[in-house]
């Protein structure tokens, strides 16, 4: 019996989403540890990975449950009681046996949040504080990423992938009070791709971003901090 779990988490408390041999302090490591206590030994499959410090308001996972856990409302209640405060199960729904959290996904949407005021301790884990941000430049240059491109110069090394080409359907920025919100929607993203794109928007000129995107020249880009990044939607 396959189900999909809708998760939300504070990435500050985790060393990324995927399980790791070096530490149990990952999103799936925490989730699978609690599931085992409930007699569920199956592995959890997520829609994709998030880096250390990156948050999610909607991460989707799937798992095959044993027959005695057919009551998903009861399971959700048990999980949220036992999971750490940084991880919450928003919903558990029954799905078809061929549903795959990663491979069935059509689009992935991320949001990056910048605040243009002085830093404060209440938001430091959830937004990136930057003064003197050129919003007009960001608003214009972010559109360069829309379309199908080879993003091999906007990724960290170490990923096992077959292609570095991705299609970005939407990329736009807007202001809300003292916040600048950047939105990216694509069929998929490479490792640290969004943080590197945000880093480029903050430091490179339009023509430099275009050259990097065309793979005609490579500029050194520092990835934007992870605390401002959120996985916000998975579309199936």
Task: Summarize the topology.
Layout: E1 2-9, H1 27-37, E2 45-46, E3 55-64, H2 72-82, E4 87-94, E5 107-115, E6 128-129, H3 135-141, E7 147-150, E8 165-176, E9 179-186, H4 193-203, H5 206-213, E10 229-235
Parallel strand pairs: 3-10, 5-6
Antiparallel strand pairs: 1-3, 1-4, 2-3, 5-9, 5-10, 7-8, 8-9
What can you see in these coordinates?
This protein has 236 residues and is an alpha+beta fold. The protein has 2 domains: 2-94, Alpha-Beta Plaits; 109-235, 2-Layer Sandwich (Alpha-Beta Plaits). The chain has 5 helices and 10 strands. Strands 1, 2, 3, 4, 5, 6, 7, 8, 9 and 10 form a 10-stranded mixed β-sheet that branches. Strand 8 (165-176) and strand 9 form a beta hairpin. The longest helix is centred in the N-terminal third of the chain and has 11 residues, at 27-37. The relative contact order is 0.19. The model has no long low-confidence stretch (mean pLDDT 95).
Radius of gyration: 19 Å
CATH-defined topology of the largest domain: Alpha-Beta Plaits
Number of domains: 2
Structural class: alpha+beta
The helix/strand series, from N terminus to C terminus, equals EHEEHEEEHEEEHHE
Q: What is the architecture of the largest domain at the second tier of CATH?
A: 2-Layer Sandwich
Helicity, in percent?
A: 10-25%
Q: How many helices? A: 5
Roughly how many Å apart are the termini?
19 Å
* Fraction in beta strands: 25-35%
CATH class of the largest domain: Alpha Beta
Any idea what the CATH superfamily of the largest domain is called?
Answer: Pseudouridine synthase I, catalytic domain, C-terminal subdomain
What is the global morphology?
globular
**Average residue-wise pLDDT:** 95
Give the strand tally. Answer: 10
Low-confidence stretches: none
Main beta-sheet annotation: 10 strands, mixed
């Amino acid at each position: 019996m396959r189900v999909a779990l809708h998760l939300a988490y504070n990435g500050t408390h985790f060393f990324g989403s995927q399980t790791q041999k070096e530490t149990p302090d990952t999103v799936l490591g925490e989730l699978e540890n609690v599931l085992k206590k409930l007699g569920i030994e199956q592995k959890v499959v997520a829609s994709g990975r998030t880096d250390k410090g990156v948050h999610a308001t909607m991460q989707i996972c799937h798992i095959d449950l044993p027959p005695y856990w057919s009551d998903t409302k009861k399971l959700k209640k048990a999980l949220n009681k036992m999971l750490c405060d940084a991880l919450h199960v928003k919903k558990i729904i029954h799905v078809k046996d061929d549903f795959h959290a990663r491979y069935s996904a059509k689009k992935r949407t991320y949001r990056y949040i910048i605040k243009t005021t002085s830093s404060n301790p209440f938001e430091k884990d959830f937004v990136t504080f930057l003064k003197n941000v050129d919003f007009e430049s960001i608003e214009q240059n972010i559109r360069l990423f829309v379309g199908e491109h080879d993003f091999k110069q906007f990724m960290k090394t170490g990923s096992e992938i077959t292609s570095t080409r991705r299609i970005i359907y939407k990329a736009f920025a807007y202001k809300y009070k003292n916040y600048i919100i950047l939105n990216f929607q694509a069929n998929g993203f490479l490792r640290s791709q969004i943080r590197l794109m945000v880093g480029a928007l903050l430091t490179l000129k339009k023509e430099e971003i275009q050259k990097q995107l065309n793979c005609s020249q490579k500029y050194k880009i520092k990835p934007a901090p992870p605390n401002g990044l959120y996985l916000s939607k998975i579309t199936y």
